[in-house]
Design a protein that fits this description.
By secondary structure, the chain is mainly α. It contains five helices and no strands.
């Protein structure tokens, strides 16, 4: 159960990494992640629709990864409460 929880936190954190690259380099020097590109698209180029579509794609990717993680760790969760 703990391994599954930590896997979930790691996956979500790696998908939505924004703060450290942006604070350290202000998004310059090739340190763009998906989240920094999304914020730049929305607020620098004023393309809110495209940024919204990117955010929805990020949500779908995260949901697919979480479903896959739940399938992989399903056996571990079933044996925990016995």
């Amino acid at each position: 159960m703990i391994v599954g929880l930590m896997a979930t936190f790691s996956i979500v954190n790696s998908i939505s990494v924004f703060d450290i690259p942006y604070v350290l380099t202000n998004g310059k020097n090739g340190t763009n992640s998906f989240s920094t590109t999304l914020i730049e698209t929305a607020f620098s180029y004023n393309k809110y629709g495209q940024a919204c579509a990117m955010a929805i794609c990020m949500l779908v990717i995260a949901a697919v990864v979480m479903v896959f993680k739940n399938i992989v760790f399903k056996e571990e969760n079933e044996n925990t409460y016995e």
